[in-house]
User: Which sequence fits this backbone?
């Protein structure tokens, strides 16, 4: 019976496929400049953002960076009282 051998080579092919997938994911991460940093958070309706609160929005998700102070060169844009990380 050689069924064991063919199963083994299939396993190797799967592993090679997974490895190349992981590589292309890593590459995609590297090639896209905006990268959300900090922890994803939920903002209360009553919260008012300041330049010191460390919140910013990326798409529909809010993030919090501790010790962050929003400013001219921080990479976030103030829009309608909300700090946004531009996606392009
Ligand atoms: Zn805030
Ligand atoms: Zn900022």
Assistant:
């Amino acid at each position: 019976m050689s069924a064991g051998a063919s199963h083994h080579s299939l396993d190797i092919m799967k592993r090679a496929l997974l490895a190349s997938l992981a590589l292309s994911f890593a590459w995609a991460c590297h090639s896209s400049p905006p990268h959300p940093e900090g922890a994803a958070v939920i903002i209360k309706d009553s919260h008012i953002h300041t330049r010191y609160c460390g919140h910013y929005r990326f798409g529909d998700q809010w993030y919090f960076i501790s010790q962050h102070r929003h400013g001219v060169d921080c990479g976030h844009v103030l829009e309608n009282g909300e700090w946004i990380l531009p996606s392009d």
